[in-house]
């Protein structure tokens, strides 16, 4: 009986330590802010306000761009826009997010590309201003650039 109590007490103590360890474990890194707006110039194809939405899971990150300022000229199938988003790192260099990811869009729908995956490091500070978004649709390449820094500020991973 005494051995059973000792074993039960030891098991309870081990469980309590495990729960304490989980409670004190560091949380996953998260990007801030999770969304930012830019004013984009896409040359002949137009321009205007766009929203960048970022997510992070460790060193993996994704960014989705949506804008109602630029609309689909024709109906576009799902995953038919090859996109490369280049963001500028504070302190120099760039980080690239690239994929062929987009929802299906009817002619006149707001343009959305992403989520575009990329790799980040802890502490990376990334800004759209000075970078670019290149989209290839039906063999036509469209390049957009931000005309001012993103608001409320750069993404910090």
Description:
The chain has 1 helix and 9 strands. It is mainly beta. The protein has one domain: Immunoglobulin-like (Sandwich). Strands 1, 2, 3, 4, 5, 6, 7, 8 and 9 form a 9-stranded antiparallel sheet that branches. The longest helix is centred in the first third of the chain and has 23 residues. The N terminus is likely disordered. Keywords: Signal.
In the CATH classification, which architecture applies?
Answer: Sandwich
Number of strands: 9
N-to-C CA distance: 55 Å
Structure class: mainly beta
Any low-confidence stretches, pLDDT <50, length ≥5? 1-27
Put simply, the count of helices is 1
Helix content: 10-25%
Stated plainly, the CATH topology is called: Immunoglobulin-like
Strand content: over 45%
Shape: globular
Please state the CA-atom Rg, rounded to the nearest Å: 22 Å
Report the mean per-residue pLDDT as an integer.
86
The secondary-structure element order is: HEEEEEEEEE
Q: Under the CATH scheme, which class?
A: Mainly Beta
Strand count, sense and closure of the main sheet? 9 strands, antiparallel
Q: Please indicate the count of domains.
A: 1
